[in-house]
Amino acid sequence: MTSTVEFVRAGLPVLLFVFFSLLAYVKVAVVLQVLRRGIGQGVPPLMVTVFLGLSLSALTMLPVVSRSVAQVAAAPDSATSSELWKAGLSPLEQFLMTHTRAADRAQVSALAERAAQKQGATVESGALPVTLAAFLLGELRTAFQLGFVLLLPFLLIDLLVALLLSGLQLHGLPVQTVTLAFKLLLFVVCDGFSLLYRGLLWGGP
Fold it and tell me: How far is 151 from 30, CA to CA, in rounded Å?
């Protein structure tokens, strides 16, 4: 029993860091994938977007991880494995309650209660799985909103370049090559990565 508790105390910070980072990665991954599709031509490369997404996710959740690690470290030596898990997840529950809309929690709670009633069980409205599902729902909504804002100027560039090349009768010139140059120019002039970082990290802990 003692060895199990020691293993949980030693490995829990790593597990919490990975789990918390994956939560933030949902929104970041969707937005970066939309950005990649909007620019086109495989720019930026997939491995770059994955590495960038993981870095941003870890940066977003670092304060929550720090609080969780501090809670686990402050637990008494006599604490059981379940008590350590509860202490480590407490900052996450506070984070989820702060960054989840009440409407999303109510909607997910109603769906969970309806599903549980069919199986003759009950679900607490403030349970961690319910709050977690509501948080992910809000993250996807935010990701789609950011994705729309990213795609709109790229779509306008595609339309304008296609009309321009058609009007000049330059049918032999690849449209995607021309649009890529203008998209990269727009992204650099507007300091797109700074705006993207702000949009993804906004609402962090």
Answer: 12
